[in-house]
Specification:
The complex is a heterodimer of chains A (251) and B (648). Chain A is α+β, with helices and mostly antiparallel strands. Chain A has 8 helices and 7 strands. In chain A, the strands form 2 sheets. In chain A, strands 2-1-5-3-4 form a 5-stranded mixed β-sheet. In chain A, strands 6-7 form a two-stranded antiparallel ribbon. Classes of the chains: A alpha+beta (251), B alpha+beta (648). At the A-B interface, helix 1, helix 2 and helix 3 of A face helix 3, helix 5, helix 6, helix 11 and helix 12 of B.
C-alpha cells in the first residue's frame, strides 16, 4: 500500500503578507502516496523544504476531519478540490494520478485579504454573525426544553442549514464573491425554528446589510456555492433569505 | 458514610472549599451565601477568557451579559473553530424525558463510578444538577437537536449507560452546541461587552503579588507580543492529548496556556489520566498527521473480533466463524462489545500484542457489521450510521458494508488538568480553569457524552456565580500593563522565541513531536509499568536537550509562522509528557484509563488501591529541571460506595 509512490508537481501561491505581491512557485514532490490526505501531502512537502532550510508553505488547518472549517484551499480551480462534499482536509491523494500538476491557491475575495501564502483573513464572516446570527436569549432565562414542540421536519431541515462549517468555499467559488450561502444558511435555520421568530426581521436586514458592507457581492444564482460546499448546504438557503428579506421590507 | 483512609494527608495548599451540608444542597446553599458584585461595579472589572470552545464561549457570553468587560482570545481565525466543534455523539442530561427512571442522582452516581472513584463527589453532583438547564439554554438558542414526530426532543443511550439520557444533533452535537455558544458570544461582541481577539495565542500568565493579573499573547498574524491586564483570568484551553502526537485532537490543540500557568504556580492535577478511545481509524502510514474517531455508538451493532490464529493474513470475509475470536464477547459475556472505553481499548491492545492484530500494520481489530446487516438489513444500518460509514469509506477507501471496519484505540481526551477548587479557581487566586483544561469532574475515566456537559456547565452555570464571589471578596484594583511583572514575563517570552528562531539544526519540530509521541504511546499509553515509565522520564529529558541543540525553526517572528507556533508548543508538550510519566509512576494502582501492569486482578482487570490512592495528585512546579513537588487532595466519598467495577 504505502509503497505506491506518486510524483507530483505543485504550483503553489506564495505571498509574504497582505502588502506584498504574490506569485506561483513550483515544487516537485517525488514521493507522495495515495493514502495521504491532501494536507498530509503538504506537511510532507514542508518537512522536505525545511530539511533543505527552505521556507515552508503556510496553509490553514486544524481539526482535519472536515468540521472546523479552517482549511481553505483552491485546488485546480475548485474550492476544496475535486471530490464533492469533501473539505480539503478529508480529500485523499488517491483522487490524483502519478505525474499530475496540481495548482493550489488561497480563497480569493476582496473580503478575505491574504495573510500569508494560502492563509486568508475571514473575520468578515464573524462580523456577519455578530450582526444578527443569534437568538437574544440570556443565560438561565430559557423555558423547559420541551415547552415548545417543533415539527420533526422543520427541526431536520433547520439542522441541514445549521451544519455550515463557515469555511468560505461558497465565497471563493462565487463569480461575485457573494457570502449569500453562508449568510442564508444561518437565516434559514432560524426561520424554521420558533425561537428565531421574535428577531426574524431585524436579523435578516442586519445580516444582509453587514454582508454588503464587508464587500461581498450579490447573488446571481450561479449556484457554484452549492457545488463546492463541503457539507452540501442547498441554495434553497438563499431563496429563504430573500423571502425573509422581502417579508422584513414589507414591514 | 465511608471515609477512605490513606497514609497521606491533604496538602495545606489544596483547599477544595467544598460547601458544607448534604450533597443535594451544597450548590444551592453555596449560591445563596456567596458574595455578589453590584451591577454598577461589574462594569469596572475586566475578565480575560482564553479559548472559545464550549467552556470559553459560554463563559465569555454569560459574564458579558452580567456586565463584566470580557476580553476573549482564540488561536483560530474564528471563535467557532475551537475543537469542541468536532464532538460527535451527544450531551448527557438528567431530564428523564424517556421516563426510564433517570434522575440527577443517577447521573451523578454513574459519573463517579464511571470515573473509577477518582473524582470529587461535590463537583460531580453539581454537574448533574445543572445538566438540565444546559439543554433548556441550548434549545432556546436555536440548537436543532434531534426530535421525535410529536415535536419533542429525542434521546438515545450512549457510552454503555443503562438509560437514554443523551441529547444529540445527528453526529454533529459538538458542532451545534459550539455554534450555539458562539452565537451567544457573537451577540456580546455586537453589544460591545466582549472584545474578541482571534489568532492571538496566550504565551504566559502574569502573576502579581500572588494573584493572576493578566496574560502575554502573540498575535499570530504579525508576531506582535501583547500585554493584557485583567482582574481575573479564565483558562478554557482544552486538553493535552496532542502530547502523544497522534490523537483525535485538532492539530493546533495544545497545552501551552495551561503549562505556562503551571510554571507560574498553578498545580497540575492527575496529569497521567488520559482517555484512549477504542474506535478510531487505524494509522495508515508514517506520514499520518492525526487520527479520526468513529463514534462509539457503532459498538451498539458492530462486533469486535480478530483471527484466532496469530499472523492470519487471510481477508476477513475468508476467515470462517470458528476461526474468529470475538474477544470482548468472550471475556465479558454480560457487557460484550459495550464495555467502557478503557476496557475495550486495553483488550484491543492485548490481542494485537499477541500477534492477532489485522491490517498491514497489525495494529487494528475488526469491527464487523455483517451480522447486524443480516439481522436488520443494510438500510437500517445506513440510517443509523450512514455518515460514519461514509467517513470511514472516504478515509480508508474500503466499504464497511462489505468488509469489516478496522479500528484501533487512539488518544482522545485528558481527564487530568489544572487543579481547581469547588469554585473552579486554581491555587493561584484569580486564575480559574474551566472545561477539559481542569481536572475536576471525570476522575480516571470519562463517560461518553459527558465532556460537552461539563464544558457548558462550567461556562454557563458555575463561573457566573463563583467569579462574582472572588471579585466581591477581592475587590481587585486595576493594574497597569507597564507593571514590572508584565515587562519581565514579556521579556522571557521574547527571549524564548529568539532562541527558537536562532536554532539552526537539522531536525524539524515534527521530528521531535513524533519521537515524543512514540515514547508516550509506548510507555505512558494504554498500559504502563515502572520500568517503562522510568525509561520515558529519562528519554524525554534527553529529547528536550537534543531539541534545543538540533532543532530547526524556519521563518521570522514578525509574520504568520505556523512552525514557530508549533515549536513553542512542542517544548511544552515535552515538559508535560515528563510530568505525565512521573504522575503515572507514583500512582501505584490501576484505575480507569490509568493501567499499571503491576496492579491487576488475576483476570487482567484494573486493580484499584482505595486505601492508598483515593486521592488527587497535584504537582507543583519547583524550578527548571527539578523534580516537582507532589501534593495530595484526599477524596471523601460520603454518598457513593466504592466497588470494584465489573463488566463480566
Amino acid at each position: 500500500m504505502s509503497s505506491e509512490k506518486m510524483k507530483l508537481t505543485l504550483r503553489v501561491w506564495k505571498q509574504k503578507d497582505g502588502a506584498s505581491k504574490g506569485r506561483f512557485e513550483n515544487y516537485v514532490l517525488e514521493d507522495a502516496n495515495p493514502h495521504m490526505s491532501f494536507l498530509e501531502m503538504l506537511d510532507h512537502l514542508n518537512e522536505k523544504l525545511m530539511k533543505e532550510k527552505k521556507e515552508p508553505i503556510e496553509f490553514d488547518h486544524d481539526c482535519r476531519e472536515g468540521i472546523c472549517g479552517s482549511c481553505n484551499l483552491m485546488i485546480n480551480g475548485i474550492a476544496h478540490g475535486p471530490q464533492q462534499k469533501t473539505a480539503a482536509c478529508q480529500l485523499h491523494m488517491r483522487h490524483f494520478k502519478d505525474g499530475d500538476l496540481i495548482t493550489i491557491e488561497p480563497w480569493r475575495a476582496t473580503a478575505f485579504p491574504i495573510i500569508k501564502d494560502l492563509v486568508v483573513n475571514r473575520y468578515a464572516l464573524d462580523r456577519i454573525m455578530a450582526a444578527g446570527g443569534y437568538v437574544s436569549v440570556g443565560t438561565n432565562s430559557a423555558p423547559d426544553a420541551n415547552a415548545i414542540p417543533i415539527k420533526k421536519r422543520d427541526a431536520d431541515l433547520a439542522m441541514d442549514f445549521a451544519t455550515c462549517i463557515g469555511c468560505g468555499a461558497c465565497v471563493a467559488a462565487c463569480p461575485n464573491a457573494s457570502a449569500s450561502l453562508f449568510t442564508g444558511a444561518k437565516i434559514a435555520q432560524f426561520s424554521l425554528l420558533p425561537q428565531g421568530g421574535p428577531e426574524r426581521k431585524r436579523r435578516v436586514v442586519n445580516m444582509v446589510d453587514q454582508m454588503e458592507k464587508e464587500g461581498f457581492g450579490d447573488c446571481s444564482n450561479y449556484a457554484e456555492c452549492e457545488a463546492v460546499c463541503p457539507v452540501g448546504i442547498s441554495i434553497d438557503a438563499i431563496a429563504r433569505m430573500r423571502r425573509e428579506y422581502m417579508g422584513a421590507m414589507k414591514g | 458514610m465511608q471515609n477512605v483512609k490513606t497514609n497521606l494527608k491533604t496538602s495545606d495548599k489544596l483547599d477544595a472549599k467544598i460547601p458544607a451540608g448534604p450533597i443535594q444542597e451544597k450548590w444551592s446553599n453555596h449560591k445563596n451565601t456567596i458574595r455578589l458584585v453590584n451591577p454598577n461595579n461589574k462594569r469596572k472589572h475586566t475578565v480575560i477568557v482564553v479559548g472559545t470552545g464550549l467552556a470559553g464561549a459560554s463563559a465569555a457570553a454569560s459574564l458579558a451579559e452580567l456586565g463584566y468587560n470580557v476580553k476573549a482570545f482564540c488561536i483560530q481565525d474564528s471563535a467557532r473553530r475551537a475543537h469542541s466543534i468536532a464532538a460527535q455523539g451527544g450531551i448527557n442530561a438528567a431530564k428523564n424525558y424517556p421516563n426510564d427512571g433517570d434522575s440527577v442522582w443517577r447521573l451523578f452516581y454513574d459519573t463517579v463510578k464511571g470515573g473509577d472513584y477518582r473524582a470529587r463527589e461535590a463537583n460531580v453532583y453539581r454537574l448533574a444538577e445543572v445538566s438540565n438547564a444546559i439543554i433548556d439554554q441550548c434549545v432556546a438558542q436555536g440548537v436543532p437537536f434531534a426530535r421525535e414526530y410529536g415535536g419533542l426532543l429525542s434521546n438515545r443511550s450512549f457510552g454503555g449507560a443503562q438509560l437514554s439520557r443523551t441529547f444529540y444533533a445527528r453526529g454533529q452535537t459538538g458542532q451545534q452546541l459550539l455554534l450555539g455558544a458562539y452565537s451567544a458570544l457573537s451577540k456580546e461582541v455586537h453589544s460591545g461587552k466582549v472584545e474578541m481577539f482571534a489568532r492571538e495565542e496566550m504565551l504566559d500568565l502574569v502573576v502579581i503579588d500572588g494573584k493572576a493579573k493578566g496574560i502575554i499573547t502573540r498575535n499570530l498574524v504579525n508576531g506582535k507580543i501583547n500585554r493584557h491586564a485583567a482582574d481575573a483570568v479564565l483558562l478554557c484551553t482544552g486538553g493535552y492529548g496532542n502530547v502523544y502526537y497522534l490523537s483525535t485532537n485538532a492539530k493546533n490543540s495544545n497545552a501551552t496556556a495551561a503549562w505556562r500557568c503551571y510554571k507560574r504556580g498553578a498545580m497540575f492535577g492527575n496529569p497521567s489520566f488520559t482517555q484512549i478511545h477504542p474506535t478510531c481509524i487505524p494509522v495508515s502510514g508514517e506520514y499520518q498527521s492525526k487520527l479520526t474517531l468513529m463514534s462509539e455508538s457503532l459498538r451498539n451493532d458492530g462486533r469486535v473480533w480478530v483471527p484466532e490464529k496469530p499472523g492470519d493474513k487471510r481477508a476477513p470475509n475468508d476467515i470462517p466463524e470458528n476461526e474468529r475470536d470475538y474477544f470482548l464477547e468472550r471475556r465479558y459475556p454480560s457487557f460484550g462489545n459495550l464495555v467502557p472505553r478503557d476496557v475495550a481499548s486495553r483488550n484491543a491492545k492485548y490481542v494485537c500484542d499477541d500477534g492477532k492484530g489485522v491490517g498491514e500494520s497489525g495494529l487494528a481489530v475488526y469491527l464487523d457489521f455483517r451480522d447486524a446487516i443480516k439481522r436488520d438489513g443494510e438500510n437500517t444500518i445506513r440510517e443509523k450510521y450512514g455518515n460514519l460509514f461514509d467517513m470511514y469509506h472516504k478515509i480508508t477507501d474500503e466499504n464497511p458494508y462489505k468488509v469489516p471496519m478496522r479500528i484501533f484505540p487512539a488518544v482522545h481526551y485528558t481527564m487530568g488538568g489544572l487543579w481547581v477548587d469547588y469554585n473552579l479557581m486554581s491555587n493561584v487566586p484569580g486564575l480559574f480553569v474551566l472545561g477539559e483544561a481542569n481536572f475536576s469532574d471525570h476522575g480516571a475515566n470519562r463517560l461518553g457524552a459527558s465532556a460537552l456537559m461539563q464544558g457548558l456547565a462550567d461556562g454557563y452555570f458555575v463561573i457566573p456565580y463563583t467569579l462574582g464571589d472572588y471579585i466581591a471578596g477581592e475587590r481587585p484594583e486595576p493594574v497597569s500593563t507597564d507593571h514590572e511583572a508584565f515587562k519581565a514575563v514579556e521579556h522571557e517570552n521574547i527571549e524564548r522565541i529568539d532562541k527558537l528562531l536562532k536554532s539552526n539544526g537539522t531536525k524539524t519540530v515534527l521530528d521531535y513531536h513524533r519521537h515524543l509521541g512514540k515514547l508516550m504511546w509506548d510507555h505512558v499509553g494504554m498500559s504502563r509499568n515502572k520500568e517503562g515509565l522510568e525509561k520515558a522520564i529519562k528519554e524525554i529529558a534527553a529529547l528536550k536537550e537534543d531539541f534545543w541543540e538540533n532543532v530547526y525553526v524556519p521563518g521570522e517572528q514578525s509574520t504568520y509562522n505556523k512552525y514557530l507556533e508549533y515549536a513553542f508548543r512542542v517544548v511544552d508538550f515535552m515538559e508535560l509528557g515528563e510530568l505525565m510519566a512521573r504522575d503515572a509512576l507514583v500512582r501505584e494502582e490501576s484505575c480507569g484509563g490509568h493501567f499499571r501492569e503491576e496492579y491487576q486482578t488475576e483476570e487482567g482487570e484494573a486493580l484499584r488501591d482505595d486505601e492508598n490512592f483515593a486521592h488527587v495528585t497535584a504537582w507543583e512546579f519547583a524550578g527548571e529541571n527539578k523534580v516537582p513537588e507532589r501534593h495530595i487532595e484526599n477524596l471523601e466519598f460520603e454518598n457513593v460506595k466504592l466497588t470494584q467495577r465489573s463488566y463480566k
